[in-house]
Amino acid sequence: MLAVITAGIFFAGFTARAEDPTKLPQPTTYVSDFAGVVDAASKQQIEALCTEVYEKAHATIEVVTIQSLDGDSIEDFTTRLEDKWKVGPKGTDKGIVMVFAIKEHKRRIEVGYGLEGILNDAKVGDIGRSMVPQLQQGQYGQAILSGVQQIGNVIAADANVTLTETPQPVDQQPVPMRSHGFPWF
After folding, report:
1. Contact by Cβ (8 Å): 123, 87
2. Directed axis angle between helix 140-158 and helix 121-136, to 10°?
3. How crowded is residue 70: how many other Cβ atoms within 10 Å of its Cβ?
4. Vertex 149, ends 111 and 135: CA angle to 5°?
5. What is the C-alpha to C-alpha distance for residues 65 and 32, in angstroms, rounded to an integer?
6. Banded pLDDT at 184 (limits 50, 70, 90)
7. CB contact set of 6 (below 8 Å; sequence gap of 6+)
8. Is 60 left (phi over 0), alpha (psi -120 to 50) or beta?
């Protein structure tokens, strides 16, 4: 009986880690770290950078980390989340959603129609791939900060504005590479 109760608690805790995009609360900041993997210094820099992109270029960058997709595809999860949150200023669709699923080692950058001309699939793919080494080392904050900086620079250049919020490197000890058999695609 004790084993059944223990197993039930374990599996209830395990499945509770999966996120349902339709049940996630509307964001109150630019970083929704539901997985709890972004360090405080990186989060502060990402927030400042996203604020500046919004104020100067009128585009929104939302960052979301989750523990698990629970069998959902990263594409479907991100699309449903974006449909619910409606990222970007109303009427312009100038929004970006960056989703990181920690357990599955998946990431996605969803670009709103208003930014597709400057952030095409090839450019977004390059930005995503540039984050992989830090993601593989568990340096989520620094990886995400790098991706947001690259996206912000493209948006700022298109809007003919200059971003003054230049993220400073965060002193982090290298995290041993965790091998779970799945790369960060």
Report:
1. no
2. 160
3. 16
4. 85
5. 6
6. very low
7. none
8. beta
